[in-house]
Design a protein that fits this description.
By secondary structure, the protein is of the alpha+beta class. It is 32% helix and 20% strand. It binds zinc ion. Residues 59, 96, 98, 107, 110, 123 line the site of zinc ion (ZN).
Length: 160
C-alpha cells in the first residue's frame, strides 16, 4: 500500500514537470520572432530610451515586418500620442518602449492596438518585456531585462 502510494506520487510529479516544460516551450515559440539578433538590436535601441541616459521620455516603436526584420525605431516625440503604421495582415509584431515613470505592462490602448492589428504588441521598459496578445485581453510577461556594461542589455527570456 505504501509502495503504491509512493509510485502514484512519483507519477504525478513527473507529469507535472512535463507540463511545466511544455508550457515553457510554448512561451518561447511564441516569442521567437523578437529573439532574432536584428530584433534584439532594435529592442536594445528602444531600451536605451527607457531610463538612465535616455535622451527623451516618449515612446519609441518598431514593427517586425513579414520577413522578420524590424523597421527603423520611430518616435512621435509626443507624450500624448505615438503614431505607428502597421501593415495589417503582413507585419508580425509591434514593439515599443515604455519610458521610466510609466507602467511596464500594456495600457488599454496597447491591448486595443494588438487586437486591431491581430498581432502581439510588446512593451519594452527599463526592467521588463510584456506583451499584449492579439485577443485584446491577455497580458503576459515575456522577459526581465538587466542593464549590462557599455549600453548592452541582458534579456532573461521566460522570466517569471
Ligand atoms: Zn504602450
Amino acid at each position: 500500500m505504501r509502495i503504491l502510494r509512493l509510485l502514484t506520487i512519483a507519477v504525478v510529479i513527473q507529469i507535472w514537470t512535463g507540463a511545466v516544460i511544455y508550457a515553457h516551450g510554448q512561451v518561447m515559440a511564441e516569442d521567437m520572432l523578437i529573439r532574432t539578433p536584428t530584433v534584439v538590436a532594435a529592442i536594445t535601441e528602444l531600451h536605451s530610451h527607457t531610463h538612465l541616459g535616455g535622451m527623451d521620455k516618449t515612446e519609441w516603436s518598431v514593427v517586425v515586418r513579414a520577413d522578420g526584420t524590424p523597421s527603423k525605431p520611430y518616435s512621435s516625440h509626443d507624450w500624448a500620442s505615438n503614431h505607428l503604421t502597421v501593415r495589417i495582415g503582413s507585419d508580425l509584431a509591434i514593439i515599443h518602449s515604455h519610458p521610466d515613470g510609466t507602467a511596464p505592462y500594456p495600457s488599454q490602448s496597447d491591448q486595443n492596438a494588438a487586437k486591431q492589428c491581430h498581432i502581439p504588441n510588446y512593451e519594452i521598459s527599463a526592467y521588463h518585456i510584456y506583451v499584449a496578445e492579439p485577443d485584446g485581453k491577455t497580458v503576459r510577461k515575456v522577459a526581465d531585462i538587466e542593464q549590462g556594461k557599455h549600453n548592452t542589455i541582458n534579456i532573461k527570456w521566460g522570466a517569471k
